[in-house]
């Protein structure tokens, strides 16, 4: 059997390696249009910022290594220009000579990836406009920074690449402005979590402009010198980076009528087969699906590409591997802060029709007496079943390990009650006795069983609408006087039993403290004293004030 793979980054090389591990007899050929193979796309920003010393560190293997290790022929600088799916043949062009030859396949794998989206008016070949998708992009940006005067950098787009490059350009001492078309950065997150991330970016000296498009450019000798935005802002520009997303590269198979998803990526089975016989698709050109509900999900990531490649290589050589879906997990460092997300956001869960419980959990990542710092965890649970649906975290302390616990829990269908029983590693340098993960499970399970939570957004909307609510601030009188929620009365926890007569047990009641723990104690007390409906404000007063500011600024 002759296996031909088109593309040799994470997905394509994984196909070839797994297919060879399973079978020593098959012919395996990989065609690569570029000259680099199996390189770390995700590591490129860190080279440009100086955290990775040598570019070659991001290219650990070459074609000769693959030939020796796997007996796989990786042919670089060679482009597949057409596919005949009926006769299972290919036309292949060797780029240095422009020689075109015919090849054939028994099994064909599309690992063609995705191309960076180049938006107007930046699509006119300006010398100082760049994308960051291939190793040659990295070389071009590096060369420009070393040979041209650059002080002001504009980055369009606030996905992971845009954010990473903002940090790395800033690390080089450049003035950086992030420009986002929508009114929210990091659109895969809920708005108020993205707002927290935005504050970190601003505090570190990177400018952020949202809700704008590009109106016009000032250009001198094919080089952009300034950009005028739709709000009238004029920004000087020495270098422009487009980080506005990617487009699956399906051109080779568009003539086949191959099935695609709403993302434009190719639909595949759990064995990576497309709708065309003997053709597989893996990596950024292929659409995945949600592990939670099976709905289509396109989140191009190197980790997913590697996994898809392994599955395809196994499937076509008689193995039993099958794709189980993804959660859309992502993580990014913003200076001294980490932001991570997995599963459904609140916005997505509500759009899908789930009745959900929403928890804001503000806890240190390890013991505060050893300088533990607060993480904000927003977790979503299905109220009916108790299943954990998603989590978002922002903080400086163990964000990565906790998001991975939530990923594992969701992947195996855990309910929030299960989280409390996890025997997580505890030592005060690394965790608290009641780890934030355990507390997340406990609080969400309580919410499902008569101890309801009210999110800051819900409280703000109800207060704005003039709904009849009894809001009780259970912090100290001093804290209340410094700042409190509008309409709230001050009743510290220790005074509640003595002052019950001041309250109406039939009126919907919201209690709050600074972060949520004391509020929960007050909630329990009032419910035990016969109050009909008592909510604990999730995340407390501190969280409410931040979310209120976000809502007032963003409508």
UniProtKB/TrEMBL annotation:
List the InterPro entries.
FAD-bd_OxRdtase, FAD/NAD-bd_sf, FAD/NAD-binding_dom, FAD/NAD-linked_Rdtase_dimer_sf, Pyr_nucl-diS_OxRdtase_dimer, Rhodanese-like_dom, Rhodanese-like_dom_sf
Top enzyme class of this protein? Answer: oxidoreductase
Which co-factor is required? FAD
Q: Which UniProt keywords apply?
A: FAD, Flavoprotein, Oxidation, Oxidoreductase, Redox-active center
Q: Which SMART domains match?
A: RHOD (SM00450)
Pfam families hit by this protein? Pyr_redox_2, Pyr_redox_dim, Rhodanese
Enumerate the spans annotated as Rhodanese domain: 465-548
PROSITE patterns annotated for this entry? RHODANESE_3
Instruction: List the EC numbers from the record.
Output: 1.8.1.14
User: What's the name of its gene?
Assistant: cdr
Q: Which domain of life is it from?
A: Bacteria
Organism, per UniProt? Latilactobacillus sakei
- SUPFAM superfamilies listed in its UniProt record: FAD/NAD(P)-binding domain (SSF51905), FAD/NAD-linked reductases, dimerisation (C-terminal) domain (SSF55424), Rhodanese/Cell cycle control phosphatase (SSF52821)
Q: Which family does it belong to?
A: Belongs to the class-III pyridine nucleotide-disulfide oxidoreductase family.
| Keyword Secreted belongs to the record | no
**GO MF:** CoA-disulfide reductase (NADPH) activity
Does the record bear Membrane in its keywords?
no
**What is the protein's given name?**
Coenzyme A disulfide reductase
Q: What is the lineage of its organism?
A: Bacteria, Bacillati, Bacillota, Bacilli, Lactobacillales
